[in-house]
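User: Can you model how adenosine-5'-triphosphate sits in this protein?
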Amino acid sequence: MASIEMKHIVKQYGDGYPAVNDVSLDIADGEFMILVGPSGCGKSTLLRMIVGLEDITSGDMIIGGKRVNDLAPRERNLSMVFQNYALYPHMTVFENIAFPLRLSKTPDDEVRRRVNEASDVLELKEHLERKPANLSGGQRQRVAMGRAIVRQAEAFLFDEPLSNLDAKLRGQMRTEISRLQRRLGITTVYVTHDQTEAMTLGDRVCVLRKGKIQQVASPRELYEQPVNLFVAGFIGSPPMNFLPATLEGNRLQTPFGPIALDERQVAAVQGRDLLLVGIRPEYFEDASLVDEAKRPYGSVFRARVDVTEWLGDSQYAYIPYEAPEAITAQLRDLSRELDSEELRTQAIVSIDSTSRIREGREADFWLDSRKVHVFDPQTGENLTRDAEAGARLTQMASEDRVEQVQHAQATGQTVGGQSSGGSGASGAHRAGAA
Ligand SMILES: Nc1ncnc2c1ncn2[C@@H]1O[C@H](COP(=O)(O)OP(=O)(O)OP(=O)(O)O)[C@@H](O)[C@H]1O
Ligand SMILES: [Mg+2]
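Assistant: Here's the modeled complex, given as structure tokens:
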């Protein structure tokens, strides 16, 4: 297992396009790092540079303390699981998992031991003699992961491994990968454009946009303290609402009435004509259902509801609002870039599932003003971000991770000695990138 350090990594393809543009990122030994961003932002390119399948135009790639820019993939001893994992149809599951060990001429009983251990963890024991064609999508996925596990690589690299699976299986595999990663304690870099996967799997998440890092932080920090409009709009589902606002005294005037800001916030946003206020759907509530204790921390406004959607555990209400053309154009561009269809001049509001608010009627909503963020509409910068609060959240996440890894390793089986410093095996059993 190893740490991965990237220093000012640039990738220019033949046509000169900088697909990855000055990326510096440190991934700790045993950490689960997510690379996320919309299509074309450079995620796969970055991953392929780590594994050695793509030349690095400039910058340093350092794995386990060693500069690997000029090493071939098989000399880096990393394990990659692709979007379209290739299993050999004529081989049994056992032989598919054993494949890299056969390549490196590992002795038979060692192969048997490692495949058995991996298949135990992956719950593939009773399928070892079957052929891939007879397996479900999720089982095939696990076979591909088994192959990565037996190699005892320095790190796992995943490129959208779940994107071909249906929603239910994707959920199961997500849990599976998370459990495995904790148990093996192996450094993992995982590419996805799915923000749910990013949020549930990552110790930290690196958000990319057009080849540049926007923010690297724990899921909670990204969610609660995004650096800009792009991160704020990308993370969270349904997405954050962005409303036009102007500052008057210590209050923001918005289409949903005034929102009071505290002193720090006022100082941060002063001097700009037009602002964008970001409000997550769950910062709203049906005003008639808000605790008396909470009520003073927010404001109440009246609005006509366009549509309501009842989902059992919660309920969404859509509230249209008016915005100046400058703002609508900006939001339209953002939605396009984030691959989301909706033109957001309607707010999505999450209210309690017992709320009687119904479409076509006016209703009173409460809005928690403590949590709103205010953005500069021109630059997209989050003007009210609290960097210290954000850093605390990421610190907490890193403490939690240490505890989870200890717990997972104390309770789970170990695979091929990987949970106790498996890197020792890398010399003897090198088998090239998967
Ligand atoms: N072989 C290539 N030659 C030239 N340009 C390329 C090549 N491969 C990728 N690119 C460009 O580099 C940019 C980043 O591509 P990359 O495949 O890394 O994106 P991605 O974030 O993985 O996207 P997706 O989510 O669609 O897989 C894109 O603009 C793409 O067009
Ligand atoms: Mg890709």
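A couple of observations from the model: DSSP finds twelve helices and 21 strands in the chain. The two ends are 17 Å apart (CA to CA).
User: Helpful, thanks.
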